[in-house]
């Protein structure tokens, strides 16, 4: 077998040299997502920690309170996109499938169910900082029945379905805690509706 000689004047770039250093060694996998933490913008760090602080002091049953450490919040936020929305922006449209999870950092939204029994039984719900939006989509592929709009300028952290899958693959413990905390919100909502007519008819 013939080998092409390497021209001694050629220089290997630092990035290639770094990869060659791992030849014959198992490549490290960022199980703790250290790489993601390093790439999180400072503003995103602030948004995540502000959301966590708002959720801790919120009294709403829509408050999202996972057992995250500060490092977990930073990792979680690295999978999210921050979106600032103007007033009267329609976030969810009834009858459409939307698998994105949203977390209210600042501002407020109102949501109303289009199912007649629920719409008559209770007024629109206000979503304040610290709240999660779209938690039902974690457990169902069905079109939603909620009409959700911003009441004022609002900042959201959004976790799309593809990014949810990436989070589950890279950080299963954080993804499990996400499911547990979202399930707690759904359970709290169910307990609050135990006495309403909609449940009485079932």
Features of the shown structure:
single chain; 202 residues; alpha+beta; Jelly Rolls; four-stranded antiparallel sheet; 8 helices; 8 strands; 17% strand; globular; disordered C terminus
How is this fold's topology laid out?
Elements: H1 14-20, H2 34-39, H3 42-57, H4 70-77, E1 81-85, E2 90-92, E3 101-106, E4 109-113, H5 116-121, E5 125-127, E6 132-133, E7 146-150, E8 154-159, H6 161-170, H7 172-192, H8 197-200
Antiparallel strand pairs: 1-8, 2-7, 3-6, 3-8, 4-5, 4-7
Descriptive account of the structure:
- This protein is of the alpha+beta class.
- The protein has helices at residues 14-20, 34-39, 42-57, 70-77, 116-121, 161-170, 172-192, 197-200, and strands at 81-85, 90-92, 101-106, 109-113, 125-127, 132-133, 146-150, 154-159.
- The protein has a single domain, classed as Jelly Rolls (Sandwich), CATH 2.60.120.10.
- The longest helix is centred in the last third of the chain and has 21 residues, at 172-192.
- The termini are far apart.
Number of helices: 8
Count of the domains: 1
Provide the CATH architecture.
Sandwich
Which class best fits the helix and strand makeup?
alpha+beta
pLDDT averaged over residues: 78
Instruction: State the CATH superfamily name.
Output: Jelly Rolls
Helix-strand pattern: HHHHEEEEHEEEEHHH
Please count the beta strands (DSSP E, at least 2 residues each).
8
Q: How much strand?
A: 15-25%
Q: Uncertain spans, ≥5 residues at pLDDT below 50?
A: 4-41, 117-121, 197-202
The backbone outline, from C-alpha atoms, is globular
N/C terminus separation: 78 Å
Main β sheet profile: 4 strands, antiparallel
Indicate the CATH topology: Jelly Rolls
> What is the C-level CATH assignment?
Mainly Beta
DSSP helix fraction: 25-40%
What is the alpha-carbon Rg in Å? 22 Å
Strand order of the largest sheet: 1-8-3-6
